[in-house]
Write a structure and sequence with these properties.
The protein is mostly helical. The chain has a domain of 99 residues. The protein is 57% helix and 0% strand.
């Protein structure tokens, strides 16, 4: 019989029963915490949306509601990330990225894509707190998209 043990992030690595084998170390180092990866991606998505809105044409965000919402989202993500939050350097370039000011249709497409991705991250999150945060962000975007449905 083989017993498998693991360690939590709170383990310091020097505790009894925790050993490191050469075969396990490369695999463990290569695998990142899925919740941290999702959190980093959510930060990157939010920063990307804020940058898009900052460069958008007048009327793409009437009243600045989306910018205000994304700033609140970014603050919540920063709180959840702790001091080691990563920046948008880990973000994938957006397929709709275009030079020049963005119009309302592009902003809506990018917001909808972010909403779908956040909803998927909420379903996949291991942490209940992160699942709620991602779901809340997705719902906020969906609500703004629904309110802005009519031109």
């Amino acid at each position: 019989m083989v017993a498998l043990t693991g360690c939590s992030p709170s383990d310091t690595g020097g505790g009894a029963g925790v050993t490191s084998t050469p075969q396990a170390s490369p695999t463990a180092a290569a695998e990142a915490d899925p919740d941290q990866v999702a959190l980093d991606r959510a930060v990157a998505l939010t920063e990307d949306l804020l940058a898009l809105l900052a460069a958008s044409r007048p009327g793409a965000d009437p009243g600045g509601r989306l910018v205000a919402m994304h700033r609140v989202h970014l603050a919540a993500l920063t709180t959840a990330s702790g001091p080691a939050a990563t920046s948008s350097a880990t973000a994938s370039p957006s397929p709709d990225a275009t030079p020049g000011p963005a119009g309302r249709p592009l902003v809506r497409r990018r917001e909808a894509a972010a909403q779908r991705e956040l909803a998927a991250m909420a379903r996949a999150a291991r942490s209940g707190a992160l699942a709620r945060l991602f779901a809340s962000m997705a719902a906020g975007i969906a609500g703004h998209l629904a309110l802005g449905a009519s031109p």
